[in-house]
Amino acid sequence: MSPYPLSLPDDTQTMKLKRQNGGTGPFAPDVPQEIVDLIIDNLQDDPLALRSCALTAHNWVHRSRRHLHSLVRIGEYYVNLRRYASPPVAQYVRSLDLYMVRTDRGRQRTTTESLWKMVARFQNLRSLVIRDFEFYRLSPRRSEVLLNICSRLRSLELRHVHFADPADFLSLVGACPQLRALLIEDGHFYSSITRSRAEEQTSDYLEGCTKHFPGSGLQSLTVGGLNSCYHFETAVDVWVSELTRRGFLRELTLSKDSPDDCEDILRAVGSSAIDLRIARCHTRAEKPARTGIEHCTNIRALSFVTSLVNSPRRSNPAWVIHFLQQLPSPTGSPARTPPPLRSLAFELHWSDKDSVDVDFLTEVDHILSSRQDAFGGLAEVVFAVHRHLSPKLQLMETPAGSLPERTLAFKMFLRVCLGTHLKGLVARKGCSVKLVFPNDGDVLRVEARKFGEECKH
Questions:
Q1: Rounded Cα distance, 380 and 243, in Å
Q2: Parallel, antiparallel, or unpaired for β 251-255 and 220-223?
Q3: Which of 109, 157, 280, 363 would bridge with 129, disulfide CB 3.0–4.6 Å?
């Protein structure tokens, strides 16, 4: 008899293997399914690895397909229609990007009959992006398919779309009772109507909506550049006015070309309670007379998406000043009616070649400190930095080091810089200034610069 045992103890045994499908399938590790799901989730951005996982074991197929087929792009990319001919595979599709374009072969549209049959199988669709689409050309059967998949949507994006009239647009939004987020950018009406006629048609349609109001479940609405079609913008303004008046809309994001383009829709918001987010505005040579924010007397949270830097891209953050200066104070006595604004946020984008615009920071600090009638109720001011650091470039004048060291130096530099030029805001009682890095999840509290600390720009 051998002096050595034939088997190792239970605590040091190698991982057991088991056969799948009744002993006829391939071997798979005896690992809890929760661990397998976590491993596959970490591979969601690697299609080749997901395909390999789907072929490994039977209990790996469901999780792998969930990531492989979660997003389908049609029109701009080639799509194998046969892949989604089976309902068991089509059930994994959660997001659809539908792009109606003309192909080089025969100049025919990519939205063929076979494609619409495939779209009808996506019964678990939650997100839909529609680009360059002409809704007024859809046949009744295709319109029925589209409205059917819209009934379960949670997110909808409409980019460069054409509707027949305001009723056509509002009927599509009304067909999405579970819709929570909507983006509209560059919409048009096929029929040639005036702005007054568009306003009248929109009001008539909304008055007839007694059971379900279009967009009643919306939590976030993003409105892009609609300047090329003024009658479509008028219809959206009337609809937004009713949404805010009835208390349905919580957050509004405006992505306009210039500050004065926001005036009409902000006038429609009026005194309704709203969280406002403004992005992508570019100031013109002349100062805009009005931004429209003077009509909004009940803004609870205000956010700006900008750079706050002097960069080679010549980004000018001065448009933020116009909104801060024209923000109205609440009606009534200031002692009895505190300002409704509680949160102010700046979403910043940074690259290695940028330098801080200290004049702009000083101007922001002056406005926030002097205008107590509008900013006296602020509880927090957040600077969220989306940075991009190159490993080959040095940060400011710090010595070369590893990327984590340079990243830490970058964060400390911004913290000291904000504490230097936001003296009045940092010294205010009851208001906290935070520096947030969403990429890392780090949150730093900005404090006044201490004696002896140096801030190089």
A1: 28
A2: parallel
A3: 157
Instruction: Please tell me the pTM assigned to this model.
Output: 0.79
Model pLDDT, residue 133: 83
Each domain of the chain, given as residue ranges in start order, spans: 15-68
Helical H segments across 158-314, by residue range = 166-174, 195-207, 230-245, 263-269
In contact, 131 and 98? CB cutoff 8 Å: yes
Identity of the amino acid at 80: N
pLDDT tens-digit map of 315-351: 566 778 889 989 988 764 444 467 889 999 998 876 6
Residue 73: phi, psi to the nearest 5? Answer: -110, 125
Assign 297 to helix, strand or coil. Answer: coil
Taken in order 150, 156, 162, 168, is the CA torsion positive or negative? positive
Lookup: tokens for 43:
């591979």
Helix spans in 55-132 (H) = 58-68, 87-90, 113-119
Q: How far apart are CA 261 and CA 251, in angstroms?
A: 19
- Crossing angle for the helix pair 195-207 and 166-174, to the nearest 10 degrees: 40
Q: Dmax of the chain from CA atoms?
A: 101
CB 96 within 8 A of CB 74: yes
Query: What is the CB neighbour count within 10 angstroms for residue 334?
Result: 13
Q: What is the mean pLDDT of residues 432-449?
A: 87
Closest by CA position to 419, among listed 456, 446, 457, 453? 446
Are 135 and 172 within 8 A, CB to CB?
yes
